[in-house]
Amino acid sequence: MAILRFKALELAQNRPRIHVSPPSSKVSDYFGDNAFGIKQMKYTLSPDVFERLIYAIQKGKRIDFETANAIASVVKIWALDKGATHYTHWFQPLTGSTAEKHDAFFDSDADIENFKGTALVQQEPDASSFPSGGIRSTFEARGYTAWDPSSPMFILSHTLCIPTVFVSYTGEALDYKAPLLKANEIINKAATRVCRFFDRNVNAVQAYLGCEQEYFVLDRALFNARPDLVMGGRTVFGHNPARGQQLDDHYFGSIPTRIYDFMQDFEIECLKLGIPVRTRHNEVAPSQFEVAPSYEEMNVATDHNQLMMDVMERVSLKHNLKVLFHEKPFAGLNGSGNHNNWSLITSDGINLFRPSSSARENLQFLTFFVCTVKAVHDHNELLRASVASAGNDYRLGGQEAPPAIISVFIGERLTAVLDELEHNGNIKVKKGDNMYVKLGIDKIPSIIQDNTDRNRTSPFAFTGNKFEFRAVGSESNVAAPMTVLNLAVADQLNNFATAVDKEINTGMERRLAIIKILRDYIKSSKAVRFEGDGYSEDWIKEAESRKLPHIKDTPRALKAYISKSTKTLYTKYKICTERELEARHEILLENYIKKIQIESRIMGDLALNHIIPTSVTYQNMLIQNANGLKGLEIDNSAVIKTIQEISEHIDIVKNSVYEMIEERKRINKITDIEAKAIAYCDDVKSKYFKKIRYSVDKLELYVDSEVWPLPKYRELLFIR
Prior knowledge:
globular; Four Helix Bundle (Hemerythrin (Met), subunit A); 3 domains; alpha+beta; 12% strand; seven-stranded mixed sheet; 18 strands; Creatine Kinase, Chain A, domain 2; Ubiquitin-like (UB roll)
């Protein structure tokens, strides 16, 4: 292993630079070249076919056979002209990644390239090995993919990829996209209903999303020399380097040359696919970076985020690099998140979370703002469950990641506005009075991004014209937390509209009814608002006194998916059935168990087959040296002390690994999946991982670097 390490270091230090040239100096010349969506269809389909397509999308109707064939014909011509040889339904099963099965356009029987409407609209992949949470047995292989025309098709690796939903033979959703599409439509209806209190002309509201994707980049040879990174995506061992991120010199620093070439390359490929990548920079930890696209309609944004990660992986191969999306690949350094910037935009292009100088518009802003805070308060545990994963458990609560307590940061100015409304919202307004002046609403400034400070320790923060859900992990499919957020806010908006209508029916003036309900919401959701340091012990105690849940681990957090309130919420809006929620809960628990199980086995393999043999060999060398010094009558006490300390750590590692193996055997016999997941969390991960790691990391300091088997943090993290 030590030989492999040094060969990998030599390769990493002598990589040639791969120069990248964009197709044109102007991005507009090639943006979206490899994408085919509504915009392209408008110019290539006949008006009547395009009209039928738009009607089907807006009404959620099935596309008829004639329309599907017309669309397939145009798409085939476009794809073949782009060099595509195959097509696939591109879907997002509950594995957390994407899936595809390629079929050739070429029909050998007819001796032509063939693509019919039936192939565009629906396929039947073998779905037996995808997780279903007990909805279907392994021998029941049928699953259906159905085209989602609202998300652009694209060409990747000479294959036409068609975004689809994925459902079982009996109709249950087996993916992330189907619930998201339903939640998008629910919030459209709820937000439109509330908007009409202020503007009768609003006919639609869309949720928009901007994903700030953080990631690490390593040299591929060094990555391959670390079995823990290859098998589990994170380093289970590794002593912190003398210099990590403490100087803050990497953040926003000059981008290393190899990384810049890689960034430019994958950005070009993303832009060709219609992904509007916009921002690139160094993040806080060494070898950590961020990419962010412009805001897009939520369904397209979630598809593009999954596609972008795929493109980054593919392009990294060309540059002899490896992208890490794990939330916490390196202990003691910042983890990676996928900061989900969420907003609501009307059909007129009005951002409902952007205050203005107009008092009337600010009442609308306050309505959506307060309802969102109330939704986060009321569905706190469900939002925590939506970001729960084995990887995110390592990240939350440390190195600038938000804690596992879900709170909302709104900034000093908006706090003052809500406080004033809470205490003055019950004033009497006489005829001729200016209600906005009396309530101070006319004094709300036009708040732009700089008016609201950022709080890196807040899981859910208002940042000027949007909310940023910072607790989402970098490896996750963002459709899961965004489905929960859309649904929670939509339900709250509907509750608000119903309450206002009730007050209006009693004779109360509309604006006063709105203020009355908002005032109640401000009071009842005040506990979730927090402006301070999310890492402080005082906040943990204060959160407990506010009765905010602090759920630190995934198995316990996931329970919110099957709570009575969640089942009521999801079934009320027909997002998921109770059976589907229970299935998803089981799938997520299974995934957690397997992740911890794999990490445990990696630790055991590395410790028993690499760390201990290397340490024993080095220890024997020290013993020989100590004996030699003794023969020369030279003080060897320092060497003997080192030998003893190495021996102690070897014993701790060996004994702990064997105990951990026995613990796994015991836990694997547990039949209840939730109990099994909790046991893996408490009796394997919590009990042994840190203990074993501590001793291995100490051995890394003792053992001669020339024989240590694994590339060290200082070697992995500083690419030039």
